[in-house]
Amino acid sequence: MDFFHQFAAQRVHFAPGRAAETLTSEVRHHRAERVMVLSGGSSSAVADTVTADLPVTIRLDDAARHVPGPLVDRTVSAARSADVDLVLSVGGGSAVGLAKAVALSTGLPIVALPTTYAGSEATDVWGITSDGVKKTGIDSRVLPASVVYDATLTLGLPVGLSVVSGINALAHCVDALWGPRVSPIDRVLSDEAVRGLVGGLESIMDSPEGLAGRASLQYGAYLSGVVFASAGSGLHHKICHVLGGRFDLPHAETHAAVLPHVVALNIAHAPDLGERLARSLGADSPNAGIAALYTSTGAPHSLRDLGVGREALTQTVDAILAAAPAGNPAPLNWEVIARLLDDAWLGDLPTS
Ligand code: NAD
């Protein structure tokens, strides 16, 4: 018991069916009068339903994955020109990511209404992609001041997207187990996050229209974001950042393809963490638990299916090694990373 742990200062509401009124009270709480609403893709329809009573000065519906630099520049200019005093993101990690990029330049507070399970709303981590390189950083200004979770607004997220987004959240809390700043508190929260996510995914497969699974996934996703922010990026996230930026890959699917192989690599060198993860997955071993979850949910698990060339992967090994945290449980070298990437490309799930 010799550790440091910092809790994020954030207001969090779990308010099923009450997003609009909860957002109104949060905007009032922050004394905001000129709100910028950011959304994108299918979440724009959700923004229509929750912003009618807000003092919206400007609304942009062009949030895009990996937060492209030119989009950030345009959105920051728009925020300044319209003299907004709060940014509301309605959507998944792409909308939250754009709001964070605006906050990074302007210091504006963010209220986030997440519609996926990416968990970015619970972190002080930002990312912006320029010229094929995703730059990330930590800054307290980008942590949303308030988060409003309304599980009813995720009912429209198709099962396939829900699964892959839930696996993305699973990657946050699993990678946190060996994150560079992990504390015992993070590990407890990680256990609970894994249980919430696995229960939520099972429930969604049984009953896609049911609210219980969606709510459980939101709860797990929030905790996953909390522990990821606290423990810091482990090997898994470093790999996904390099691959996502280099090949413009879909974020959650990339996490899903890489996660089983980072787990298999690391638990061989950290059996205590492996036992812990197996318990929260409700399985005999972490590999078996993850394989069973992927099989029952139909989660994607191959980089090949994302269109990446097998040979091209080896060009990313040096960048991954340079970014990998020093304390990773498994010793890392060029061959180890190259083999892991090749396994993720082939997509065979480790089972024992
Ligand atoms: P996303 O926001 O692009 O959403 C994925 C897809 O879901 C999109 O096609 C979107 O239109 C659709 N969608 C969203 N809500 C919907 C709804 N309610 N109904 C129907 N469709 C809906 O992607 P994401 O997976 O949520 O997040 C990925 C991004 O978030 C990446 O850029 C990633 O780097 C970032 N991220 C950042 C952090 C962090 O801490 N900084 C953490 C996790 C993810």
Provide structural commentary.
This protein is of the alpha/beta class. The chain is built from 13 helices and eight strands. It has a six-stranded parallel beta sheet with strand order 1-8-5-4-2-3, with helices on both faces. It has a two-stranded antiparallel ribbon with strand order 6-7. Strand 6 and strand 7 form a beta hairpin. Helix 10 runs parallel beside helix 11. The longest helix has 23 residues. The protein is globular and about 55 Å long. The mean pLDDT is 96. The structure holds nicotinamide-adenine-dinucleotide (NAD). The site of nicotinamide-adenine-dinucleotide has 30 residues, from helix 2, helix 4, strand 6, helix 5 and helix 9. The site of nicotinamide-adenine-dinucleotide (NAD) has 30 residues, from helix 2, helix 4, strand 6, helix 5 and helix 9.
| Main sheet properties | 6 strands, parallel
- Strand proportion, as a percent range, falls in 5-15%
Report the span from N to C terminus.
Answer: 32 Å
Count of beta strands: 8
Question: Number of helical runs?
Answer: 13
Contiguous uncertain segments of 5+ residues = none
Evaluate the radius of gyration: 19 Å
Oligomer: single chain
Give the class from helix and strand content and strand pairing: alpha/beta
How does the overall form come out from the CA principal axes?
A: globular
